[in-house]
Amino acid sequence: MGSEHRIVILGTQGQLAFALRRSLADLGEVVAIGRDTTPVAVDLEHPGALVEALVSLRPTVIVNAAAYTAVDAAESEPGTTAAAVVNAVAPGLIAQAARRADALLVHFSTDYVFDGAATRPYRETDATGPLGVYGRTKLAGEVAVRASGAAHLIFRTAWLYDDRGQNFYRTMRRLARERAVLRVVDDQRGAPTWVGHLSRITTEILDRVGLEDRARWAARTGTYHLAAGGEATWFEFANAIVEVAQHRERVAVDRIEAIPTSAYPTPARRPAYSVLDCGAAERAFGLRLPHWREGFDEMLSLTFD
Q1: Which tens digit of pLDDT belongs to each residue from 221-259?
Q2: 223: domain CATH number?
Q3: What percent of the chain has pLDDT over 90?
Q4: Looking at the domain assignment, is residue 22 inside a domain?
Q5: Would 29 be classed as within a structural domain?
Q6: Residues 6+ apart with CB under 8 A from 178
Q7: Number of domains observed in the structure of the chain
Q8: Which residues, in sequence order, are CB contacts of 277 under 8 Å at separation 6+?
Q9: From the CB of residue 49, how many other CB atoms can be counted at a distance below 10 Å?
């Protein structure tokens, strides 16, 4: 692909947006926009000018990697809140802009659209049932994108982490340096997904779909699950993180205790089961979603500050 394609990424600070900016540069000119960017700035909490701003950039692809992710804070502000505006209202406007600009929209969603009561990996066709405000607003954003008429790829993912930003991996490393005992939930199950793999797979999908072939966009439009293979509990992931930390840096931790979710109450309920079946994406785009340990090991091989 060449630089004649302009890929606009919404989100400048998040871990996924950061990774996407690097990987998508292989496909064209990448323009990341947010509150403080020039010459175009957008604030998804105040999206009145969002459509015109996006259309003015003449994008080939719009990638919405921005979201309100303060899951617990969202519970205290139901209704017309930042979560609702950023996660539900803004995606609909972004999709409107994509349709006006004749651009392909890539929109990231979440496992929180499900209730976590499943006993096998969730498929795209399974019934949704979000447990809280965050999940409901993300689901509403999906609905708005689908209703827009824009060519789109909605990618649901889960348990994202990286060696930058705020995430479980970074939190466990910090706590391992500060505490002798860590107590970690062992009855929530998912697949830790490294943003390096997610951004790389997103780029590969766009390359295979073809940025110049709008007919293929329409054929592939839909909702897909993109997350790492395999599964683990937060306790099991924490053990993997601490084991590496103990060999590579000075830590205080000498024991990790498994606890139930009931012992760590939070304002927002978390899905107990967040494993996503990614078979549809693998078949549609001819790719393989790596096991979560592959992502973890590759991230560690690249950096350990």
Answers
A1: 999 999 999 999 999 999 999 999 998 888 999 999 999
A2: 3.40.50.720
A3: 82
A4: yes
A5: yes
A6: 252
A7: 1
A8: 120, 121, 122, 123, 124, 225
A9: 14
- Which token pair is 123? 């498929």
Domain-located, residue 13: yes
Q: Cis peptide leading into 47, omega within 30 of 0?
A: no
Indicate if the pLDDT at residue 36 is higher than 90. Answer: no
Q: What are the percentages of helix, strand and coil residues in the chain, rounded to 5?
A: 45, 20, 40
Q: What is the pLDDT of residues 66-112, one digit of tens each?
A: 999 999 999 987 555 899 999 999 999 999 999 999 999 999 999 99
Residue type for position 37: T
Which tokens belong to 305? 């500050």
Mean pLDDT of the chain: 93
Rounded Cα distance, 77 and 87, in Å: 14
Catalytic residues: 134
Is residue 51 included in any domain, yes or no? yes
Contact 87, 238 (CB under 8 A): no
Domain, as residue range, for 35 = 6-163+193-229+275-290
**pTM, two decimal places:** 0.95
b/e string for 153-189 if b means 16 or more Cβ within 10 A?
bbbbbbbbbbbebebbbbebbebbeeeeebbbbbbbb
Q: What is the pLDDT of residues 133-155, one digit of tens each?
A: 999 999 999 999 999 999 999 99
Residue 1 reports pLDDT greater than 50: no
